[in-house]
Structures are given as structure tokens and as C-alpha cells.
TrEMBL record:
<keyword id="KW-1003">Cell membrane</keyword>
<dbReference type="InterPro" id="IPR019430">
    <property type="entry name" value="7TM_GPCR_serpentine_rcpt_Srx"/>
</dbReference>
<feature type="transmembrane region" description="Helical">
    <location>
        <begin position="166"/>
        <end position="189"/>
    </location>
</feature>
<feature type="domain" description="G-protein coupled receptors family 1 profile">
    <location>
        <begin position="41"/>
        <end position="269"/>
    </location>
</feature>
<protein>
    <recommendedName>
        <fullName>G-protein coupled receptors family 1 profile domain-containing protein</fullName>
    </recommendedName>
</protein>
<feature type="transmembrane region" description="Helical">
    <location>
        <begin position="138"/>
        <end position="160"/>
    </location>
</feature>
<feature type="transmembrane region" description="Helical">
    <location>
        <begin position="251"/>
        <end position="271"/>
    </location>
</feature>
<keyword id="KW-0472">Membrane</keyword>
<feature type="transmembrane region" description="Helical">
    <location>
        <begin position="216"/>
        <end position="239"/>
    </location>
</feature>
<feature type="transmembrane region" description="Helical">
    <location>
        <begin position="99"/>
        <end position="118"/>
    </location>
</feature>
<dbReference type="Pfam" id="PF10328">
    <property type="entry name" value="7TM_GPCR_Srx"/>
</dbReference>
<dbReference type="InterPro" id="IPR017452">
    <property type="entry name" value="GPCR_Rhodpsn_7TM"/>
</dbReference>
<feature type="transmembrane region" description="Helical">
    <location>
        <begin position="59"/>
        <end position="79"/>
    </location>
</feature>
<keyword id="KW-0812">Transmembrane</keyword>
<keyword id="KW-0675">Receptor</keyword>
<keyword id="KW-0325">Glycoprotein</keyword>
<keyword id="KW-1133">Transmembrane helix</keyword>
Length: 300
């Protein structure tokens, strides 16, 4: 594979932001997989929750629907625009629209993830107050509005500046808050598990401890995925100076990792949380039966 900068077929002046031919192909394949898998998985998770009455009444499920819809938009709209951008010389209007929309969607996704972790924190730390505090319709509406209001408010300054450095600070603060919540949840769950082990016989521990450990493990996996995917874009300015000629190339490579977080969330939540996994299985079963019935009627 050639290591020389890739040259566009229709416009020899466009050097694909300094990306090599192999990098363009690799980013295209990876981003296409992220787009297709992330879109389908997030939409299936949303459909599974909406089609299950028990989950529709769950506050956690409502928060995950908001997060999944946002992640589905990232995978279905932003990622294809990113693929087009690295293959063709994007116009100023296209580049500005992609940047503003992507910035808003990614912030909304991070806000939604932080809200989910806050909900898990309250559930584990204040289990006796959880029902009174969280299980109210206006709370769900308020968290949804807060998630998007902050994202839109922080996106508006893009109309006045091409380089919103405040965004890096905000994302770094979100990362610190998410990691801090995870550490607290892990330590608290560990203390509670040890307390249960001392107070109850071994036979009943299996019934009481899994709930805490599953919640802590789910949060841990989501935190690890988020930090891993966002670390490249957050630390990039400290490694490659913005004035460097290779900064744009580095940004295009690092930006591909941020989209990955939107595609892995459904797998984490469905794999570790049984009620979401069961709802997804039932949803897929209904879809398969519906397709079989439609094909049977078609060929009759």
C-alpha cells in the first residue's frame, strides 16, 4: 500500500488533508462499519424499549432512548458526512454545517451519557429515595431538555468562532465527571457487597449482590469505551500543535474514534442489562415473524 498522500481523481489540488491512500481506505472502511452497525443497533434498542411496556415506564429506559436516538443520528448522518469529507474537497458551507451539527450531536451524546451515569449513581447511592426522586414524568422531561439545551447553547458560539477551544475544556470536564462517578459507584458497590457478605449467609448473597455488581460493571464498561474513544481528540492539541501543517490530518484521524463511542453503547447496555437484552430479543423475534408473514403473503 502506498504511503504517499492520496490524490483526488477529480481535483488534484485536494490532498485528502494529507492522509495517505491507506489511511483514507482504512478510515472509510472503519467509518462505514461504525455507521451501519451503530445506526441499526441504536434504532433496534430504541424500538425494543418503545415496544416493551415495562421498559417504557422505566426512568433508565427513557434516558437510554434519548442517548440512543442521539447516537443513531451521529452514526446515520454525521459519519457519512465525515466519509464524504475525507474523499472530496468539502465546500465551506458543507464543512460548517457538518462541524456545527456534529459538535451539537456529540455534546448531546456526552450529556446524555453523563445523565445516565448520574441516574445509576442515585440508584446505587440512594436506593430508598430513588423511586420518589426519579420516577416522575417531569423529571424525565427536564433531563431531556437539559441534555439538549446545554448542547445547543455551547454550539451557538460556533457562529462567531471557527475554533471553539472551550469545547475541549467542556469535554475534559465531562470526562473527569464521568470517571469520578464511576470510581465512586465502584467503591460504594464494593463496600455494599462486603457489608452484605458479612450480614447474610452465603446462600442469600447470590440474590442480593448481582444487582450492584452489574450496575457497577455496566458503568465501568461505558466509561472505558467513552474515555478510550474521546481521549485522542481531547489530548491531540497537546501532542500536535494547532499551527502544525499536520494538525488537520491528525484531527481527521482522531475524529473517527469519537464516532465509535456512539456505536458501542447499545452493545454494552444490552449485554450487561438483562431486561434490555430480553426486550431486544423479543423485538427481533417479532420483526422476523413479521418478515416471514409478509414474504408468505407475497408468494401466495
Amino acid at each position: 500500500m502506498s504511503n504517499s498522500p492520496a490524490i483526488a481523481t477529480n481535483d488534484t489540488s485536494f490532498d485528502h488533508y494529507g492522509l495517505t491512500e491507506g489511511e483514507v481506505i482504512g478510515l472509510t472502511v472503519a467509518s462505514s462499519a461504525i455507521s451501519s452497525i451503530g445506526t441499526v443497533s441504536n434504532l433496534l434498542l430504541t424500538l425494543a424499549v418503545l415496544s416493551t411496556k415495562q421498559l417504557r415506564e422505566s426512568f433508565t429506559a427513557v434516558l437510554l432512548i434519548s442517548l440512543s436516538v442521539c447516537d443513531a443520528l451521529i452514526c446515520s448522518v454525521y459519519v457519512p458526512m465525515y466519509i464524504w469529507d475525507i474523499h472530496h474537497a468539502a465546500s465551506t458551507t458543507f464543512e460548517n454545517a457538518r462541524g456545527v451539527m456534529g459538535f451539537c450531536l456529540f455534546l448531546a451524546s456526552l450529556n446524555g451519557e453523563l445523565i445516565v451515569f448520574l441516574e445509576r449513581f442515585i440508584y446505587i447511592r440512594f436506593p430508598y429515595h430513588y423511586t420518589n426522586w426519579m420516577c416522575k414524568k417531569y423529571i424525565a422531561a427536564a433531563t431531556f431538555c437539559t441534555q439538549w439545551f446545554i448542547a445547543v447553547a455551547l454550539t451557538l458560539p460556533l457562529a462567531f468562532t471557527r475554533t471553539p477551544w472551550y469545547s475541549i475544556f467542556y469535554v475534559a470536564v465531562l470526562m473527569a465527571a464521568i470517571v469520578s462517578l464511576h470510581l465512586y459507584i465502584y467503591c460504594f458497590a464494593r463496600q455494599e457487597s462486603q457489608k452484605i457478605a458479612r450480614q447474610y449467609p452465603a446462600g442469600s448473597q447470590r440474590q442480593r449482590m448481582p444487582l450492584l455488581s452489574k450496575s457497577a460493571t455496566t458503568v465501568a464498561m461505558a466509561v472505558l469505551a467513552t474515555v478510550s474513544c474521546w481521549a485522542p481528540i481531547v489530548i491531540l492539541p497537546a501532542i500536535v500543535p494547532p499551527s502544525s501543517p499536520s494538525f488537520k490530518r491528525s484531527v481527521k484521524i482522531a475524529a473517527s474514534f469519537t464516532s465509535l463511542s456512539a456505536a458501542v453503547h447499545p452493545f454494552i447496555f444490552c449485554w450487561k442489562l438483562q431486561y434490555f437484552r430480553n426486550a431486544l430479543v423479543n423485538c427481533l423475534r417479532k420483526l422476523v415473524n413479521a418478515l416471514r408473514s409478509a414474504s408468505h403473503l407475497t408468494f401466495r
